[in-house]
Structure to design on (375 residues):
């Protein structure tokens, strides 16, 4: 068996804590990966995380993580607008890298990361790996087998609401200090498309395959948001609707909005075809049948590595994506969260903003090969 890999959690904020540190400190991961370092620029936060989770090193400077020879892998749980520069530095330092959603803010940035990683034999995995969920693999299989007949259209999306303002972990009560969510409302990288709709777009394209063109309308609906009694400006679009064209006159409607949602199952599309509908986890009104469907778990609590205590913990899907990278490095197992797929989704988001600004439909240039599931 290969020696355990050392991982650095970069960003000890909400996702870094709940999706990485909470999970990676458990005994059942230690034969594969151990917490070599934690990094956060907020004074004292990395040290607090290191004490709580028994991490070997705590750093405030990212450069110190890159220089640490005990760090084989990095998981970036930092603001999305930082991912490109931090990811590029990690690749050039020879560190295998997991990106919590979204990998970058432009397709060109994503393609450069992929190209340079390939040149250096550095492995990349990008969240959200929606196709790690058996429900989504079952939907892809049903559609490819013709269960809905010819598909007509699909819809998916998410709304910001006040989710980030109300996360309990941001209050500072757990010893990490206040974790301010204001970056979610600013460019680059803020807004519901990069933060939330990205889940549904990964699911949609993971099931249907690559899209071809995009048009959209977009703007800022709520110009200020309040957190802890202070008002923060919003300059990242928070209200966007998108039309996406696939092959053979198949279309999808996607949205990243300030409020409202169509499907109660987060990140799950609804597919409409000649022979019926798959809406989230229901096929023509009846529950979908797939391995594990009777376990009573939310879809984000299912995945090849989500076992034991991990099934009861928050953000288990982030942990699953990290473990996809661990297996990729140790065993050469291709990840279900391929970086090429992430680049394609990023181009859909980027194209939507461009279409909204110019009024012109955008043709997509990126593509990816959907994961070949042996089920």
């Amino acid at each position: 068996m290969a020696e355990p890999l050392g991982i650095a959690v970069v960003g000890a904020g909400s996702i870094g804590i709940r999706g990485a540190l909470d999970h990676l400190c458990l005994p059942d991961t230690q034969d594969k990966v151990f917490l070599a370092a934690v990094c956060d620029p907020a004074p004292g936060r990395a040290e607090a995380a290191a004490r709580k989770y028994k991490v070997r090193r705590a750093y405030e400077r990212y450069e110190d993580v890159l220089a640490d020879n005990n760090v084989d892998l990095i998981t970036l749980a930092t603001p999305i607008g930082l991912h490109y520069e931090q990811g590029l530095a990690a690749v050039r330092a020879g560190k295998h890298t997991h990106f919590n959603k979204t990998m970058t803010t432009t397709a060109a940035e994503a393609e450069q990361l992929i190209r340079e990683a390939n040149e250096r034999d550095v492995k990349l995995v990008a969240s959200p790996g929606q196709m790690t969920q058996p429900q989504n693999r079952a939907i892809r299989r049903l559609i490819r087998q013709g269960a809905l007949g010819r598909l007509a259209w699909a819809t998916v999306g998410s709304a910001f609401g006040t989710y980030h303002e109300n996360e309990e972990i941001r209050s500072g009560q757990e010893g990490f200090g206040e974790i301010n969510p204001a970056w979610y409302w600013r460019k680059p990288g803020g807004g519901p498309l990069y933060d939330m709709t990205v889940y549904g777009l990964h699911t949609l394209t993971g099931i249907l395959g690559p899209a071809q063109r995009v048009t959209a309308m977009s703007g800022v609906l709520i110009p200020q948001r309040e957190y802890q009694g202070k008002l923060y400006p919003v300059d990242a679009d928070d209200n966007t609707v998108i039309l996406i064209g696939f092959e053979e006159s198949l279309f999808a409607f996607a949205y990243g909005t300030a409020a409202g949602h169509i499907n109660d199952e987060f990140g799950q599309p609804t597919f409409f075809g000649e022979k019926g509908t798959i809406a989230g986890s229901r096929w023509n009104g009846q529950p979908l049948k797939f391995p594990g469907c009777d376990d009573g778990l939310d879809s984000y609590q299912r995945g090849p590595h989500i076992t034991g205590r991990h099934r009861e913990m928050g953000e288990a899907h982030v942990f699953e994506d990290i473990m996809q990278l661990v297996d990729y490095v140790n065993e050469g197992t291709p990840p279900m969260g391929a970086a090429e797929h992430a680049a394609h989704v990023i181009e859909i988001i980027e194209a939507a903003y461009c279409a909204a600004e110019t009024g012109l439909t955008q043709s997509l240039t990126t593509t990816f090969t959907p994961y070949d599931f042996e089920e």
Summary: The mean pLDDT is 96. The longest strand covers residues 151-159. The two ends are 27 Å apart (CA to CA).
